[in-house]
């Protein structure tokens, strides 16, 4: 009996272990960290052997094949030992792909992956398709493949998940954007990181579709070196003479789509007026999801109807209430400068901005022009706000600080005029005052709700 060792016992690892067992392999799971109780219970219930707090090399190196968690870098000693022994190391996605004939719609990019994945899944599901949701959104593809009851899977893929894929074949591959992130895993090379993202195309053939952002300079540059057999569907925020575009905006809320971009005839216009998504980056995410839906065969009516009923994941530019004509938006997931840039850029109304937290070596210079033109006030919410104050003190007309979310919301409400937006988009990690970004976002929404009750 062939032996499969799984490294890492969280969502993807446990899913892979359960699938490997279902397919008749001898399975052993090894995690260098403590295993969460929910996953330990799953492994125990299935009778799968596991260890935690250590990788026992004698056992790991008896594997015929190893399925590696995306969180383990290639430089880890256990991976180096496996490479020396020439034992194949693959990802959970690669392993799962062997056991399903379903069509995979795979979405990657530095920013916007989750929103685009959830929106694409929602559009297909609302239209009555048999579709599963998997990957980096927190659901194991491998575990779903055990029953394999879906005809389609919409899968969010990080570069780490793509790193160990070889023959996994997306039907539709989507690349939203490439900006510097996780470069420590790619020898601090943007080119190597970009090539990891473009790996999504490596097994695609002429029956597949590759949807990508023609406005992204890094994609334009790096894609030239990639041989891609799939049908190419570039999209842009504007009509461009240098590309045969598959999608572009003809007005603020209208997208022209054309699945045969080589022919300039035959475009179909779709209204996105009903979409609740905010900001320029979400206009790009929406185009990518609409193209996925068009390739999957949805009608214009099905797409427009689905856009209107979509609700994004919590803490991502999420409207949470209105007080005296000012709208409150929770973007607690914006834990880096770039994510906050998208929020400030995407909101057209005057902004009362709440930011701050644990600084990750942030360079705020890219935010200064936006803060100057959009922000009426900045409320710094953190234990140490000196860097924010130094960066924005002379830029925004009003700046103050607090260590209390309730106080931040009340001060923002007092400063806001009807038509303004109070935006929590922190730029920073949350660990100084909150458990995590979800806790920060929930406290913001709760403080807004309490103030709304008082103002009734």
TrEMBL record:
Gene Ontology terms describing biological process: cell division; cell wall organization; peptidoglycan biosynthetic process; regulation of cell shape
GO molecular function: ATP binding; tetrahydrofolylpolyglutamate synthase activity; UDP-N-acetylmuramoylalanine-D-glutamate ligase activity
Annotated ATP binding sites: 109-115
Pathway the protein takes part in: Cell wall biogenesis; peptidoglycan biosynthesis
Presence of the UniProt keyword Cell division in the record: yes
Main localization, broad class: cytoplasm
Compartmental location: Cytoplasm
GO cellular component: a single term: cytoplasm
Enzyme superclass (EC): ligase
Keyword Membrane assigned: no
PANTHER family: UDP-N-ACETYLMURAMOYLALANINE--D-GLUTAMATE LIGASE
Descriptive protein name: UDP-N-acetylmuramoylalanine--D-glutamate ligase
Gene name as annotated: murD
């Amino acid at each position: 009996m062939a032996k499969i060792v799984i490294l890492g016992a969280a969502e993807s690892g446990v899913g892979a272990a359960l699938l490997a067992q279902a397919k008749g392999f001898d399975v052993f799971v090894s995690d260098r960290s403590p295993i969460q109780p929910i996953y330990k219970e799953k492994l125990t219930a299935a009778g799968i052997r596991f260890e935690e707090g250590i990788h026992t090399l004698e056992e790991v190196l008896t594997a015929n094949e190893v399925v590696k968690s995306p969180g383990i870098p290639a430089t880890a000693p256990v991976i180096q030992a496996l490479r020396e022994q020439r034992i194949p190391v693959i990802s959970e996605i690669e392993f799962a792909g062997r056991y399903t004939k379903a069509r995979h719609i795979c979405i990657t990019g530095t920013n916007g992956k989750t929103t685009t994945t959830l929106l694409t899944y929602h559009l297909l599901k609302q239209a009555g398709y048999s579709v599963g949701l998997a990957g980096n959104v927190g659901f194991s593809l491998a575990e779903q493949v055990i029953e394999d009851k879906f005809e389609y899977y919409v899968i969010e893929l990080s570069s780490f998940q793509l790193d160990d894929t070889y023959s996994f074949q997306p039907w539709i591959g989507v690349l939203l954007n490439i900006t510097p992130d996780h470069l420590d895993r790619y020898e601090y090379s943007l080119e190597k990181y970009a090539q990891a993202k473009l790996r999504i195309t490596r097994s695609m053939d002429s029956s597949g579709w590759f949807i990508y952002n023609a406005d992204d300079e890094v994609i334009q540059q790096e894609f030239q070196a990639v041989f891609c057999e799939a049908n190419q569907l570039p999209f842009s925020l504007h009509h461009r003479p240098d590309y045969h575009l598959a999608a572009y905006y003809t007005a603020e809320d209208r997208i022209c789509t054309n699945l045969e971009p080589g022919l300039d005839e035959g475009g179909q216009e779709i209204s996105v007026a009903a979409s609740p998504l905010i900001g320029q980056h979400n206009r790009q995410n929406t185009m990518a999801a609409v193209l996925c839906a068009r390739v999957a065969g949805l009608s214009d009516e099905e797409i427009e109807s689905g856009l209107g009923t979509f609700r994004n994941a919590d803490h991502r530019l999420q409207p949470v209430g209105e007080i005296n004509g000012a709208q409150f938006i929770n973007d607690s997931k914006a834990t880096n400068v770039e994510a906050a840039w998208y929020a400030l850029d995407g909101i057209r109304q005057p902004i009362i901005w709440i930011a701050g937290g644990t600084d990750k070596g942030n360079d705020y210079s890219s935010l200064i022009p936006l803060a100057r033109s959009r922000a009426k006030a900045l409320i710094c919410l953190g234990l140490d706000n000196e860097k924010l104050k130094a960066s924005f003190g002379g830029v925004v007309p009003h700046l103050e600080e607090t260590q209390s979310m309730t106080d931040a919301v009340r001060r923002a409400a007092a400063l806001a005029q009807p038509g303004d937006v109070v935006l929590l988009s922190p730029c920073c990690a949350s660990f100084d005052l909150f458990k995590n970004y979800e806790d920060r976002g929930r406290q913001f929404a709760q403080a807004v709700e309490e103030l709304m009750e008082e103002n009734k």
